[in-house]
Amino acid sequence: MIIITGAAGFISSCLVQKLNDEGYYDLILVDDFSDEKQNKNFEGKRFSKLVDRSEFIPWLTANHLHVQFVFHLGARTDTTEFDYALLNELNLEYSKDVWNCCVEFGLPLIYASSAATYGLGENGYEDDESKINLLKPLNPYGESKNEFDKWALQQERKPYFWAGLKFFNVYGPNEYHKGRMASVIFHTYNQIRDTGKMKLFKSHRPDFNDGEQMRDFVFVKDVTEVLYFLMHHRKDAGIYNLGSGKARTFYDLAAATFKATGKEPDISFIPTPEDIRDKYQYFTEAKMDKLHSIGYHKPFHTLEEGVHDYVTNYLIPNKYL
């Protein structure tokens, strides 16, 4: 059996599809399944059992002999969440419980970290474990992820294989339920569909023109390829970046989305909301040398390729992966 937490969510549900495509069907899906709007993310997929998040640790304790791998991708991912107690419970303490079970039962583990741990990038975007204590996340979500990374590295007892993946700006099918936290591609497509136009945030820094703020956008299909690779690799444990390795502008993203819909770009700019303006990242770019050094060499989709696939095969036909 393979366990996937956060299975009703975005990346996890795409991983379920990837595993199905590769012939893996004995999957245990873990989540809070009370959110009906997410549950269609695993409709039509093959799996063995749904386990509620609150019951997972006792379930794993009772069934660990049958488990081959654990993907712990579930988390509270809202970067505007300021309930520290909730983030501590779901992103830190729960992850410690999963880690400790994997240690006790000899199970390999991949867990989701985040590029939000890098903050404004004062210390760069290199997945150098010696620099993790120096990082300054910009929000409580990023802090919770960084705290777990630090905790994991401090443990004397670790799973025989483990990897913490710092996801950059992931986009693709099955993210419709994320609201404000969904990718800019998702919001761009909806604005174009509804108004024929797109509004991007103005720059509030003199060194960046409007629309030229840059992010490392990574297609979810590339993310699941890396997850699948690491499931088989099972060595070279540690913390890894997972992005495309190439920063692109928001203007490029919007233009690619217009092109995928067959429309001419009509892009304007609005002020960045004040509640996020002071903590807004103007540049992120994953350094991917570490992942490449352990043997992962598949090419990533370009922004244009990924946007075209997402828009034409999923958003326009209103399909899910």
Task: Describe the main β-sheet briefly.
Answer: 7 strands, parallel
Q: How much helix, percentage-wise, in residues?
A: 25-40%
Q: What characteristic shape results from the CA principal axes?
A: globular
Could you spell the SSE succession in H and E letters? EHEHEHEHEHEEHEEEHEEHEHHH
Query: Helix/strand-derived class?
Result: alpha/beta
Ends distance: 22 Å
The CATH topology of the domain at 2-171 and 217-246 and 284-301 turns out to be: Rossmann fold
> Taking strands numbered 1, 2, ... along the chain, how are they ordered across the largest sheet?
3-2-1-4-5-6-11
How many beta-strand elements?
13
Radius of gyration: 19 Å
Describe the secondary-structure layout.
Blueprint: E1 2-5, H1 10-21, E2 27-31, H2 36-39, E3 49-52, H3 56-63, E4 69-72, H4 84-105, E5 109-114, H5 140-154, E6 162-167, E7 169-171, H6 184-195, E8 198-201, E9 214-215, E10 217-219, H7 220-233, E11 238-242, E12 248-249, H8 250-261, E13 267-270, H9 274-277, H10 289-293, H11 303-315
Parallel strand pairs: 1-2, 1-4, 2-3, 4-5, 5-6, 6-11, 7-10, 8-13
Antiparallel strand pairs: 9-12
Describe this structure in words.
With 321 residues, the chain is of the alpha/beta class. It has a domain of 218 residues: NAD(P)-binding Rossmann-like Domain (Rossmann fold). The protein has 11 helices and 13 strands. It has a 7-stranded parallel beta sheet with strand order 3-2-1-4-5-6-11, with helices on both faces. β5, α5 and β6 form a beta-alpha-beta unit. α4 runs parallel beside α5 and α8 packs across α11. The longest helix has 22 residues. It is globular. The model has no long low-confidence stretch (mean pLDDT 94).
